[in-house]
Amino acid sequence: MQFEELYANYWDKIYRLCLGYLNNPDQAKDLAQETFIAAWKQLDNFRHEASIGTWLYRIASNTCLRQIQIDNRMPKVDFPVQIPEPEVQSIEQEIQLLYRFISELPELDRIIISLELEGIKQADIAQVVGIKEGNVRVKIHRIKEKLTQKFKSHGK
């Protein structure tokens, strides 16, 4: 597969996966770009042991996890000037809320539900996260229950 085709086919999916990790559109875009840079550098080394999508999701997951570790080590400092953040028009309010709730989940749950939302096969999700396919099914069910409860409690 040509890099341009890979980029065109997976950009939106990788961006949404990163958004699920970080709940920050700008940072998600940066990490999606980093994912594709890493994939471009390693494309010749791709061994076809898994689907190229699974390989790309793995790179994105590792990129996001590294960024989360960096963010946790760095002290958070407020920007000195208050600049109103423009509202993202391309994502509806409920979808923004969903991604906020996803970002509050534990890391493994965030990975699993983000990949599930992208329509990735559960066998491929299991391969990406390193657990059995049956465990993925159970975790997806439990994650959906958690998210449903968050939506219900948010609506009150």
Q: Counting H and I runs of at least 4 residues, what is the number of helices? A: 7
* Model regions low in confidence, pLDDT < 50 over at least 5 residues: none
**Total number of beta strands:** 0
Q: What percent strand?
A: under 5%
What is the overall silhouette? globular
Main beta sheet strand tally, sense and closure: none
Query: What's the end-to-end separation, in Å?
Result: 49 Å
Rg over alpha carbons: 16 Å
**Residue-averaged pLDDT:** 85
Quaternary structure annotation: single chain
Percent of residues in helices comes to over 70%
User: What structural category arises from helix and sheet content?
Assistant: mainly alpha
Question: Secondary-structure element order, as H and E?
Answer: HHHHHHH
Protein architecture, described:
- By secondary structure, the chain is mainly alpha-helical.
- It has 7 helices and no strands.
- It starts with a helix and ends with a helix.
